[in-house]
Amino acid sequence: MKKSLAILSLTTILVTLILSGCYYDKAELVYPQAASCDTTNVKYSTDIVAILSANCYACHSGTASASGGRKFDDYTLLKNNFVNSGKLVLAVTHSPGATPMPFNQPKMAKCNIDKIIAWVNRGAPNN
Ligand code: HEC
Does residue 16 sit in the same domain as residue 72? Predict the structure, then answer.
């Protein structure tokens, strides 16, 4: 009787250890980006310019064909015409109300979109 009790408690301890090990493995799978996407201190001059330059400037800067009034390498034009109207966020999130961007391409990586939203929500400062 005593022996089977000891085996039972040993089994309980082992099962608990194995289950808690699995819990941590699963947490890593569920939140793979949590640690890598930092939106707390997004800056225009570094983060936003880097995202726009890699994904948008090909068509929205300098003399590119889509530039017209859509020159995103000009902070004031970007802010006044596309941030304040909400079009920038609608376009990158592929939401109704703006043509989905990048044009004819899938959405950008979630972290890029989250950084743009975080910057816009803080008033899109020229920092
Ligand atoms: C391959 C060229 C191309 C790329 C790359 C591109 N755009 Fe555009 N963009 C366009 C064209 C063309 C239009 C005009 C579309 C229209 O009028 O329907 C446009 C329009 C827009 C508009 C105005 C949308 C509206 O409905 O008024 C926004 C905002 C915009 N782009 C943001 C972006 C952002 C942000 C990126 C990068 C993530 C990007 N674009 C990348 C070609 C591009």
Answer: no
CA torsion, ordered 69, 127, 49, 80, to nearest 10 deg = -20
Q: For each of the chain's 127 residues, which pLDDT tens digit applies? A: 566 655 555 555 444 444 455 545 555 455 554 558 999 999 999 999 999 999 999 999 887 666 666 889 999 989 999 999 999 999 999 999 999 999 999 999 999 999 999 999 999 999 9
Number of the ligand 1 atom closest to the C-alpha atom of 108: 38
With a 6 Å cutoff on the Cβ, whether 60 touches ligand 1 is yes
The answer for residues whose C-beta is within 8 angstroms of residue 79's C-beta and 6 or more apart is 124, 126
Same domain? For 54 and 108 the reply is: yes
Q: How many CB atoms lie within 10 A of CB 19?
A: 9
**What residues make up the domain containing 12?**
1-32
